[in-house]
């Protein structure tokens, strides 16, 4: 490979790393392409500001960590100094095993479609590409590892001098942070290289090596499980795990040396030696790595990463759903009905085919938030926390009950072509999720009532109207922001502030009635009637607004 | 054959202050085919979107078989079929399920399977019957869009560049279908850059310029 090839590979990779770095800098309004003097002054200001900010956050996190662990240690009677490396080793080993597990499934070399066009078909040296990609990836990881090392180092120092860290000089802090970091860096890079060795070995040539990779996965799972059990058992001081103590001590020896001194130089030399060996092995085996296979496996993941950075969660969901759906499916056996009921049939098919643990969890989340609201409001009487819970519950209900309608808006051409009045389209999309939410809310209220916390009938009666009102509010807000061109491009808007304000009005009315009934000792039946009448009127009015807004899209 | 199926009265469209479509009025009678050509950005797609009801015009109104598109939308939509330039589909429904969905929504139950099979076979999509839209090529997706337009009853057909990504056999089938539909009395408006398609279809060809559309 000549130097021009190397320069080309380095240019592509460095541009990626710089652009990823630039992405984070745009958050603080710094444009890396801006070469003006003012931009450099601003960069200097950012460095000074964030260095100070970083130090303060490190102090704060280390203080939290020290305060959280100290009481447990006092109770268990173990010295803190002996525990930190154990926790560190546990996290480190589990993380490495997880990465090894992942490397047996997906290539550690991540290529976008563009990278694949630029590199995979060229005769560029595979070894050089592998190492360049490894260092690019490692650089982003080491930032977080360094942060964690600083926190651990500061926390140790903080405890060691009994929370007097603010009195220390910068020199002591630098030693506390840098001493472990010097050891952590080669250890991390060495382990990173081990993960890549497995990934690269899997992608060598055209062989799949499924049996070897499956064996590694099984071994990694067993090792991870055992190590977790042994470590937690030892940390909690169960005598059953005492025989494993030498193993733990052996594994945590590098971290003990890094954080607590003792054989520091020896460990540094060993870790640098091991890191060099790992990198050399990676260099040796990566000569025939199949970059096309790697690109095939990872361009989807890379596209998801880009979508995540842009905050395009709809795109991520769409990509995940496509992956889950596969390429084909036999026609659904659900009976077909003509007219508006085709929407119900379509909705059932769509829901069944994209059912996932995450989607079920989002329903349970509504249930959990509801029970928390009642417990916080009824027992703890904590107003500010209750408001946060009501806000979260409203957002969850809005999202969940309007999700199907929003998805249909993204297929505006098909939805608009249906010879159905807007009211029926909205109702067919909203009613199933609203019904499930009402059922879940009533179930929560029933469980809480049976547990001994009395629920006022006004609250029970208001549930359908509040949930329907929230749902129509978010639908109205989506329709208000929609225009034909964005919908035809498949970019339906999400509900915003207007939807939330309307939702809060829907929640506020029954709560106001409830307080008026209690304050003026009015008969509960009057409150129930008032809730039904006002809630019903509000829901119908909102539906009417949605219908009008639907017709106005253009 | 002089039954006016599409009556356009003084419609115009503005994107903010930019007038994308100059005020125009015209009528397309039963059995007529109108082919609209013109450079990119002259307003062909905007005109078709206004005629289909997807865009609400800044002024004027559209009557489909006598029904006002913006007031009696359901009746008008039962008689109107529109194909956009880039049709989008439900990603969870297969080709066959899309056809079933649109057919049943328009209450086409009688002989549905037979008609659907014929259309799939004519457009060479039979093998893709159980496939999800995201696995179809652009041309195949356009074919699916055409099938969805043709499977249901209509008297006015609007198609925005229906042959842009079609293969030659697909284009031939579409031309044949459009000629048959025209002979049966359907009013058809299509936009295209393909002048040979306009010649094959016959009917009127109108060159649109800077939002100005005038039917002779």
Describe the structure.
The complex is a heterodimer of chains A (554) and B (216). Chain A has helices spanning 3-27, 37-76, 80-103, 113-120, 126-160, 170-202, 210-235, 245-260, 264-285, 291-309, 313-325, 341-353, 357-380, 383-409, 412-417, 422-450, 457-481, 484-488, 497-519, 524-552. With 554 residues, chain A is mainly alpha-helical. Chain A folds into two domains: 3-16 and 35-107 and 114-291, no CATH class; 342-552, no CATH class. In chain A, helix 1 (3-27) runs parallel beside helix 5 and helix 17 packs antiparallel against helix 19 (497-519). The longest helix of chain A is centred in the first third of the chain and has 40 residues, at 37-76. Chain A is globular. The two termini of chain A are 58 Å apart. Chain B contains seven helices and nine strands. Chain B has a five-stranded parallel sheet, sandwiched between helices. In chain B, strands 2-1-4-5 form a four-stranded antiparallel sheet. In chain B, a hairpin with a 2-residue loop joins strand 4 (59-64) and strand 5 (67-68). With 216 residues, chain B is α/β, with parallel strands linked by helices. The longest helix of chain B has 16 residues, at 168-183. Chain B has two domains: 1-79 and 157-216, Rossmann fold (3-Layer(aba) Sandwich); 90-153, no CATH class. The mean pLDDT of chain B is 91. Chain B is 34% helix and 25% strand. The A-B interface holds A 318, 321-322, 325-332, 336-340, 342-343, 345-346, 349-350, 353-354, 410-414, 416-421, 484, 488, 490, 551-554 and B 49, 52-57, 70, 73-75, 77-78, 81-82, 84, 86-94, 96-98, 100-102, 104-109, 130-132, 134-135, 148.
